[in-house]
Design a protein that fits this description.
Chain B: Keywords: Amino-acid biosynthesis, Cytoplasm, Glutamine amidotransferase, Glycosyltransferase, Histidine biosynthesis, Hydrolase, Lyase, Transferase. Chain B: InterPro entries: Class_I_gatase-like, GATASE, Imidazole-glycPsynth_HisH. Chain B: Heterodimer of HisH and HisF. Chain B: This is Imidazole glycerol phosphate synthase subunit HisH. The structure holds two protein chains of two kinds. By secondary structure, chain A is of the alpha/beta class. Chain A has a single domain, classed as TIM Barrel. The radius of gyration of chain A is 16 Å and the shape is globular. The longest helix of chain A has 11 residues. In chain A, helix 1 runs parallel beside helix 2. Chain A has an eight-stranded parallel beta barrel, surrounded by six helices. Chain A starts with 5 loop residues before the first strand and ends in a 7-residue tail after the last helix. Helices cover about 35% and strands about 25% of the residues of chain A. By secondary structure, chain B is α/β, with parallel strands linked by helices. Chain B has a nine-stranded mixed β-sheet with strand order 2-1-3-4-13-12-11-8-9, sandwiched between helices. In chain B, strands 6-5-7-10 form a four-stranded mixed β-sheet, with no helix packed on it. Chain B has a single domain, classed as Rossmann fold, CATH 3.40.50.880. Chain B is built from six helices and 13 strands. The mean pLDDT of chain B is about 95. Classes of the chains: A alpha/beta, B alpha/beta. The interface between A and B is large, with 34 and 37 residues.
């Protein structure tokens, strides 16, 4: 039997609270990360992602204490991202309960960071968080964005994920800036393009509005699916509903 | 579960995240110490040999702090040791990760790259427990969380010496079969991460604590 499709609630954290915006703007409050971690662990989440959404723009480190308290609520993997710029920062997060880390902007400006982290802890500890949007000027049609999706880089997204895989990332989290927070469904074209370019597990993110949106993302090549608002503002059994939809489409899930 | 609170020493040799392991064991009712001190590693009711990252780097870090010596002494004294992920891999003959490296040779087999393009193998996969497993009691059809690119694909235990009791082996599958767990008297090991495997993982840890 094959590996289960992972369903991952995402905690976008700002000033100690979980927030969620549309297209990375207009943040609104969704609760306490420690309470939400407890709830999602009990509801059957396969993994949790904790993103310090304003860490990079405000140029400050992720709150270690909050990561620590969140980690204590979950006996499933916890990935932490946001503002990670150095190996020391990774070490502190791992020591505070993170099981994996995700790097975004800093890896774009300093790709050696990927090699440094992978060499020390192995590829499986490292998730590349790719923020990308459609841009017809790029060879692949997709441009890498940084600073929480606010700034273009002029870098081709497909070339970047291939380079990152080569350098040693263990997974890629695909954030489509165009689809994020719209609740209109995942950016399937972008997932397909990345699936064709790399072999590592892919986590689809951005745009999920209902359980029916998930199977097409898996069909397009995702090994895991991540959503925020759908779980924060949806009914308590939304994780189970999403797994029902995935299973009904013929893909394995963990129960 | 024993009425006395069991003490678990997690071997801390400077690599990787031990927080989740400590967290899960405490949740299961154990008192946990993270240490590289022989005295503490020997006197605890159970010892965990964790592992993270590359085989050779992990083994070198363990040897720097004599960790493998304490594992050997515990096993010789019949005292429980549970090895996890790369800690588990180190108990085999050797590994082909980044060159060729010798392991402890407790169990037969070489750790090899998983024969699939879909690496790393990250996620929840079924483990088929060996019949009468103590570690997997009550866990007949469960998924556990794996995070690895290398594994033991073949198990060839030399039965030439009838006095040797063969270890119990449980298997998992990711495009190919590989060894998921070995139970061998006081020495047990798992390729997956019980501390990250939700309910199933906590049950497995409780089973281990309950075996003391």
């Amino acid at each position: 039997m094959s590996t289960a499709i992972r369903v991952i609630p995402c905690l976008d954290v700002n000033n100690g609270r979980v927030v969620k915006g549309v297209n990375f703007e207009n943040l609104r409050d969704a609760g306490d990360p420690v309470e939400l971690a407890h709830r999602y662990n009990a509801a059957g989440a396969d993994e949790l992602t904790f993103l310090d959404v304003t860490a990079t723009t405000e140029n400050r480190d992720t709150t270690y204490d909050l990561v620590n308290r969140t980690a204590k609520q979950a006996f499933i993997p916890l990935t932490v991202g946001g503002g990670i710029r150095s190996v020391d920062h990774v070490e502190n997060l791992l020591r505070n309960g993170a099981d994996k880390v995700s790097v975004s902007s800093a890896a774009v400006t300093n790709p050696e960071l990927i090699n440094d982290i992978a060499r020390r802890w192995g590829a499986q500890v490292l998730v590349l968080s790719l923020d990308a949007r459609s841009n017809a000027q790029m060879p692949s049609g997709y441009e890498v964005m940084i600073k929480g999706g606010q700034e273009g880089t002029g870098k081709d997204a497909i070339e970047w994920v291939q380079e990152a895989e080569e350098r040693g990332v263990g997974e890629i989290l695909i954030n489509s800036i165009d689809a994020d927070g719209t609740r209109d469904g995942f950016d399937l074209e972008m997932i397909r393009a990345i699936r064709q370019a790399v072999g590592v597990p892919l986590i689809a993110s951005g745009g999920a509005g209902e359980p029916a949106h998930f199977p097409p993302a898996i069909e397009a090549g995702a090994n895991a699916v991540l959503a925020a608002s759908l779980f924060h503002y949806g009914p308590d059994d939304m994780i189970a509903q999403v797994k029902d939809a995935i299973e009904a489409a013929g893909y394995p899930v963990r129960r | 579960m024993p009425t006395k609170v069991p003490t678990i020493a997690i071997a801390d040799y400077g690599i990787g995240n031990l927080g989740s392991l400590a967290n899960a064991l405490e949740h299961c009712g154990a008192k946990v110490v993270l240490t590289d001190q022989g005295q503490e590693l020997l006197e605890a009711d159970g010892m965990i040999l964790p592992g993270n990252g590359a085989f050779a780097a992990s083994k070198a870090a363990m040897q720097d702090r004599s960790i493998l010596r304490w594992v050997g002494q515990r096993v010789a004294g019949g005292r429980p040791v549970l090895a996890v992920c790369v800690g588990f891999q180190i108990l085999f003959d050797g590994s082909e990760e980044f060159g060729s490296h010798e392991g402890m040779g407790e169990w037969p087999g070489t750790v090899k790259k998983l024969p699939t393009k879909a690496v790393p193998h990250i996620g929840w996969s079924h483990v088929t427990p060996v019949a009468d497993s103590a570690l997997f009691a009550g866990l007949t059809d469960e998924r556990f969380y794996f995070s690895h690119s290398y594994g033991v694909l073949d198990w060839n235990f030399d039965q030439g010496n009838e006095a040797m009791v063969p270890p119990q082996v449980s298997w998992a599958h990711h495009d190919a079969d590989f060894v998921a767990a070995v139970e061998n008297g006081p020495l047990a090991g798992v390729q997956f991460h019980p501390e990250l495997s939700g309910r199933a993982g906590l049950t497995l840890l409780k089973n281990w604590l309950g075996s003391f």
